[in-house]
Design brief:
This protein is of the alpha/beta class and about 290 residues long. It has 7 helices and 5 strands, in the order ααβαβααβββαα. It has a 5-stranded mixed beta sheet. The two termini are about 25 Å apart.
Length: about 290
C-alpha cells in the first residue's frame, strides 16, 4: 500500500475550485497531482482493481451511497451558512439526476448542524480547522460520503468553491475522506453561476475516482478515460465548439469534470462511468 505521505498528497491534490462571490469568478483548481504522481496512483489501481464485470450481478438496481451532510455555520441564519433541509434535499436530487447513468443512487442519510465560526470561515485544505471539523463530525466508512458545507472566507480556504479526496486516499487517511464545499453553491444558493448544485456533482466525481477532463493537457497522461477528448486547459462559461488540442474531438465542455458553469454541465461519458465503478469497487467496497 502507499505511504501516508502519498495519500496526504492525493488529499492535497483534491479538486479545489474558486470563489463564486463575484459572478464572473472562474473555477480554478488547486490540484497538485503531477503526471508522475498520477502514474504511481494508476499503477496501484491497475494492480488491485476490481473490474466492473466482477461485480455482484444480483440485479441491475443502482448502488445506494449514503450522504452525510455536516452544515457548518457562523450563526443560525441562511446567510451565515445554515443551509435549510429543502436545499439539501434539492442537492441530492441534482446528484441523482447526474449519476443516474452510472448506477448510483445518493441517499440523504443524516444531517448535522454545527455553529462554529472558526470552521465556517477558515476550514480549508490542510488547515487545523478542517482537521478538527472532520475529526469531530465524520461518520461511516469508506462507502459513506461526508459533505461539509462552509463559508471559505479566510485562511487556506479563502475564496474556494469546493474540494474532495480521492478513493485511493481513504486507506491512508480515513478521517479526511469526503467533500468540503461552499454552502451557497447548493441549488437555490447565491453563488451564481455555480448555484445549481453541480459543485457537489463535480466534487463527488473526484470522490468516486475521476480526474478533471483537462488532466495532463494535450500531451500528458490525461484523465485515464479514453472517450473524454484531450483538453489543453479547463473551460469556463459554456464555450460551445472550443477545441484546444489537435487530437480528435472538441473539448468536453459539458462534462461534469470540467470547470464550466453549472448550467453547461450535463454528462459523464461511458468511459468515466466504467472507471468510477472500478474505483469505488476497489477502494470503497461499493458495487454499482
Amino acid at each position: 500500500m502507499f505511504s501516508s505521505a502519498f495519500f496526504s498528497l492525493l488529499i492535497g491534490a483534491s479538486a479545489v475550485l474558486a470563489s463564486p462571490f463575484n459572478t464572473t469568478a472562474r473555477r480554478v483548481c488547486g490540484t497538485a497531482i503531477t503526471d508522475e504522481e498520477l502514474i504511481t496512483a494508476e499503477k496501484h489501481f491497475q494492480a488491485n482493481k476490481i473490474e466492473p464485470n466482477q461485480f455482484s450481478t444480483e440485479a441491475t438496481a443502482a448502488a445506494s451511497i449514503n450522504v452525510h451532510f455536516h452544515v457548518i455555520s457562523k450563526d443560525s441564519t441562511l446567510a451565515g451558512g445554515n443551509v435549510p433541509d429543502s436545499q439539501l434535499t434539492a442537492q441530492i436530487s441534482v446528484m441523482n439526476t447526474a449519476y443516474a447513468g452510472a448506477g448510483i443512487t445518493w441517499v440523504l442519510s443524516s444531517t448535522s448542524r454545527t455553529v462554529n465560526s472558526d470552521w465556517f470561515n477558515n476550514a480549508g485544505p490542510s488547515s487545523s480547522q478542517q482537521t478538527a471539523m472532520k475529526k469531530a463530525l465524520r461518520v461511516g466508512a469508506a462507502k459513506d460520503l461526508n459533505v461539509y458545507t462552509v463559508g471559505f472566507t479566510s485562511g487556506s480556504g479563502a475564496g474556494l468553491l469546493g474540494y474532495s479526496t480521492f478513493p485511493s486516499s481513504y486507506a491512508g487517511a480515513p478521517t479526511d475522506d469526503g467533500v468540503v464545499m461552499l454552502f451557497s453553491s447548493v441549488p437555490g444558493g447565491t453563488a451564481a453561476p455555480y448555484n445549481l448544485g453541480q459543485t457537489l456533482t463535480h466534487e463527488a466525481g473526484h470522490w468516486v475516482g475521476l480526474y478533471h477532463t483537462f488532466q495532463g493537457g494535450c500531451s500528458g497522461t490525461g484523465d485515464q478515460v479514453s472517450d473524454t477528448p484531450a483538453e489543453a486547459s479547463s473551460a469556463f462559461g459554456c464555450p460551445t465548439g472550443r477545441d484546444t488540442c489537435t487530437s480528435a474531438g472538441v473539448d468536453p465542455i459539458h462534462n461534469f469534470m470540467d470547470y464550466t458553469d453549472d448550467s453547461c454541465m450535463n454528462q459523464f461519458t461511458a468511459g468515466q462511468i466504467t472507471r468510477l465503478k472500478s474505483q469505488i469497487a476497489t477502494y470503497r467496497g461499493i458495487s454499482a
